[in-house]
Design a protein that fits this description.
Layout lengths: L10 H10 L1 E4 L3 E7 L8 E5 L7 H18 L7 E7 L8 H15 L9
Parallel strand pairs: 3-4
Antiparallel strand pairs: 1-2, 2-4
Helix pairs in contact: 2-3
C-alpha cells in the first residue's frame, strides 16, 4: 500500500499529468510523468487499469503488482513529480518481474529529473 502522501487521487490532477507530462510506453504500460511546480511535496502516483485489461480480479491483481513496483521506485523520483501509470491489456499476462522492469524502463524514458519546458 502506498502512503497517502504518495497517492495522486484527484481526477483534475491526474488529467493534468496526462495532458502536460512526458509519456513513455512499453509493452505492458504507459507512464505519464509531470514535474510539478508546487512547493516541495513527495512524488505521487496514480494507476489506471481499464476493463480492457480483464475482469475485476485481473485488474486488481495488476494494480497490486504495479503499486508494489511503484513503491520500490518512489525513493528514486524527485519531489513534486506526478506519475500516472496506465496498464495495457498485455499487463494481465505479465508477471510482477516483467511489470516492474517495464515500469523502470518507462521511468528512465521519461527522465523525471529533467524539468519540463513550459507549454
Amino acid at each position: 500500500m502506498l502512503a497517502r502522501a504518495h497517492r495522486l487521487r484527484r481526477s483534475e490532477e491526474i488529467a493534468r499529468a496526462v495532458r502536460r507530462g512526458r509519456r513513455a510506453s512499453t509493452a505492458t504500460l504507459t507512464v505519464h510523468a509531470e514535474r510539478g511546480e508546487d512547493p516541495p511535496r513527495p512524488a505521487r502516483v496514480a494507476f489506471v487499469v481499464s476493463k480492457a485489461v480483464g475482469d475485476a480480479v485481473t485488474r486488481n491483481r495488476v494494480k497490486r503488482r504495479l503499486r508494489h513496483a511503484a513503491a520500490a521506485a518512489l525513493p528514486g523520483l524527485p519531489a513534486g513529480c506526478d506519475l500516472v501509470v496506465r496498464a495495457k491489456p498485455a499487463a494481465a499476462r505479465a508477471s510482477f518481474v516483467e511489470l516492474a522492469a517495464d515500469l523502470g524502463r518507462a521511468l528512465r524514458q521519461v527522465d523525471t529529473r529533467q524539468p519540463l519546458e513550459s507549454r
